[in-house]
Amino acid sequence: MTDLLEVGVLTPMHETARRPLYTETTTSQALYLPIAPPTLGTEGAIIGRELYSGKAFIYCPFSAFGDGLPGGNMIVMGDTGRGKSALTKTYTARQIRLGRQVVVLDTKEQKEREEGEWAALGRSITGKAPVRFTPGGGAGASCINPMDPAISGKRQIELVRTIVEVGLGNRLDEFAGSALRLAIRRARERAAEAARQPVLADVAAALRAPDPADAAAKQRTLDELLADGLEASYVLDRLCGGQDATGDLTGMLDGPTSIGVELDADMVVFDLTKVPSGGVATTILVAVICTFLEEVWLRPLCECGTAPSRHERIVVDADSGAWEIGPNPDSQCRRYTQRKRILVCEEAWHILGTPQLAALLEKFLKFARGYGLSCIFIVHHLSDIDDSPETQASLKMADTIVIYSQKKSEAEETVARLGLPAWTAEHIMRLRRGIALWKVGDVIYPGVQHLLVEAEQHLCFSSGSMTDLATTAPDET
């Protein structure tokens, strides 16, 4: 494959030429065994080859959708260094060349480069640096406001409640939840009077200074309403810093949105590597980013780059008035086709393993088909994730499962939790590096070898610290 691609391999407009394959009948019978799983078609990104049949393995959830694949969500798992990140990076880069958009939540730092491991790939595709989040803020740091007007009012309430519950470690009762909703409304009103965006500090202030009219409407005294929301105000102060500016979310979620990046770019990398892994800040930050993406990035958009309103309506049934979105003469687009998008979550155990966050993202995953979205979660083992109902619901929405080599106990737990056939446990233990078991819908592909071209290798290599490379040039002879 290395001779098929030249310089500029990762540029979205570059096209790959496929050479014709000439075979005789007997050769075809040897290559395409009758016992091999069915192919996923010829449309999509080339992954590599299926070892037990010798066929090329081509995968695209958008092309295969509806033909045995009910959704586009994927989970990739396996021990460290087996090829999970390399697969995901090359897969997304190849999908971009098919017109897709990609957003990455990068939590995996490369210490020697002092940046996330997706930064180089993002720059090679878009020429832009990742969106960095740094505790305390500072030069080059970004901020997302959970109270941003771009996020709808209902989603703001859900998001702020999740922030408080994650920070508190418990779910809010009805009294506290009601006080929080009232405070969010008052925070919006007071910020509007000052002609600025409301922020989380405004919500904390409104919780500590409830309005008498709100207390009367809820048939509570002013002191009772204050007591209902006081603990939530302390949580927001602790997270956002209050007066001492030392909160977990200071500089990241405590001010107006300041993302200096175009969400229309082919790839947007959110660099979360400086945020303490597995902490409250990471969990909350991911929740806010995902909600912001749902409200802003996932807006309806045709592959020609125009909104549905720019396309003509075509009546398909005069009796019922049923219609569909048709062409756009301005862009010479013949029919509206929703642009497809991919969301990648590195080290996704902190998402799937947090019940509050899993519940918040359940709608995000459940309606991914309506968004034209494919979510990819990368984890090491399922033992990193709890067995809560919210997490199980998220796992069930992964219609494609990719499993690289795991140790005996992990392989057995993976097979048990995912309901795979018993023989796959020992098979997973014996997989070599770069080879994975794929389950696409109900079909199992026991050995898919991921292949990289030469131009991709330096962008996908994430084990430099453990590799013994020569530091001096070889002697000339």
> Percent of residues in helical segments?
25-40%
Number of strands: 15
Tell me, what is the CATH class of the largest domain?
A: Alpha Beta
* Biggest sheet overview: 11 strands, mixed
Beta-strand content bin: 5-15%
Question: Any chance you could write out the topology, listing elements then pairs?
Answer:
Blueprint: H1 25-31, E1 45-50, E2 56-59, H2 61-64, E3 74-77, H3 84-96, E4 101-106, E5 109-110, E6 115-116, H4 119-126, E7 131-132, H5 153-168, H6 174-193, H7 200-208, H8 212-217, H9 222-240, E8 267-271, H10 280-297, E9 313-317, E10 322-325, E11 341-345, H11 349-352, H12 355-366, H13 368-371, E12 373-379, H14 389-396, E13 400-403, H15 408-418, H16 423-429, E14 435-440, E15 443-450, H17 454-460
Parallel strand pairs: 3-12, 3-13, 4-8, 4-11, 7-8, 11-12
Antiparallel strand pairs: 1-2, 1-15, 5-6, 9-10, 13-14, 14-15
Helix pairs in contact: 3-17, 5-6, 5-9, 5-10, 6-7, 6-9, 7-9, 10-12, 12-14, 15-16
Q: What structural keywords apply?
A:
477 residues; alpha/beta; Rossmann fold; two-stranded antiparallel sheet; 36% helix; disordered C terminus
Outline the structure in words:
The protein is an alpha/beta fold. The protein has 3 domains: 271 residues, 3-Layer(aba) Sandwich (Rossmann fold), CATH 3.40.50; 88 residues, no CATH class; 27 residues, no CATH class. Helices cover 36% and strands 15% of the residues. The chain is built from 17 helices and 15 strands. Strands 2-1-15-14-13-3-12-11-4-8-7 form an 11-stranded mixed β-sheet, with helices on both faces. Strands 5-6 form a two-stranded antiparallel ribbon. The radius of gyration is 25 Å and the shape is globular. The N terminus and C terminus are likely disordered.
